[in-house]
Amino acid sequence: MADFETRARKVLPPVLGHYTWLSIDRGEGSWLQTTDGRRVLDLTCGIAVTAVGHAHPRVVKAVTEQAQRLMHISVGVAKYESSIAFAEALATITPRGLDTAFFGNSGAEAIEGAIKLTRQTTAREAIITFRGGFHGRTVGAASLTTSKAQYKRGYGALLPEVYVAPFPYPLACALPDAHDLEACEAHCFAELEAMLEHEVPPEHVAAILIEPVLGEGGYVAAPASFLRRLRELATKIGALLVFDEVQTGMGRTGAWFAAQKVGVTPDVMTLAKALGGGMPLGAVVSSRERMERWRTGTHGSTFGGNPVSCAAGLATLQVIRDEGLVARAERLGEIMVEELAPLRSHPRLREIRRFGAMVAAEFDDKAVSKAAVGAALERDVLLITCGFHDQVVRFIPALNIKEDDLRAGMRTFVEAARAILVGAPA
Ligand SMILES: Cc1ncc(COP(=O)(O)O)c(C=O)c1O
User: pTM value?
Assistant: First the structure.
């Protein structure tokens, strides 16, 4: 077994970006073991997926038993227990009224489904999204993605009738006095209203689609008041409000969904990542009434809601519920911010942000964030960046991580970042 990097470079395409070349043999809880025997603390959760850790025994048992019983039949061919049981369980935790789930395999597919559902059931075409959002890489989802222009590079014309409004992100605000959240929010909303006056007639808008917290875009939470205003606006113009909760869903924010945390109920939610507990699974969730209007046969998927993925999703949901992990997310977030305190006064750190257990440290330059993440990995702590320029380090621990492990991992990051910052010009 030559090392994975050498082999991967021969048979996997370079189009796949990579944060590291770590060769992972196994994962257990919050720990990864490399093929050369290193133990690495995982503060990435495989990009916000393994919310109950790697190989949680209850998830592994559910997957194993389901694989032995029925691995595949396709929901279009026949019905089976796990997809129905999982949809029933989801309906007990989603915002009120969002009681029906269409299952796909990924976040991007959930976005594709949301585009189709909203367009078909409103008989309108335009979709309003927000600058900095990441919604996936399939053609429809990439059309809505503006966290980095590179996701569109070389792909020609994408989906028409997509309009991009500014997201209230004070550090990136176009206003001269950028750092005032209220002023930035007012500016963004005014721009959105101007868009409806100058660029797209309100009655053309099928959906206003937003990540309540920018994920890939930098872990930036939209103020609850902004999301409330979007709710009112969508209702007023007859458009649907869609929350992309692919990264924020399933307890990560200290509520089952960010929608509940901010007290705003969207018409549609898209879910994936932690939904399947590590198995590929995504969902478009909406009301029964709306789903009844999505015409039979006009959308579907061979693998979507696969029996094993749904069994894993159901077990994951039960673990999150039984272990009280939704409430714990808030505590984990507090711990992370507490441990980052020694970096706070450094001139190259622009901001520490937190929304539940989504924590970000934004630096003034990618050179610092990347070097700090690299130095942390040398000390066996795995982290990844996000942000328009990868200038943000994001912390996404499993929601059941041991407190000692989390504190030790955060201290290691602080030590690594300090070592980098000593050498970096202020
Ligand atoms: C908010 C959000 N939406 C959609 C996606 C796309 O999900 P996937 O990579 O499963 O297609 C992502 C992935 O990072 C995401 O963070």
Answer: 0.97
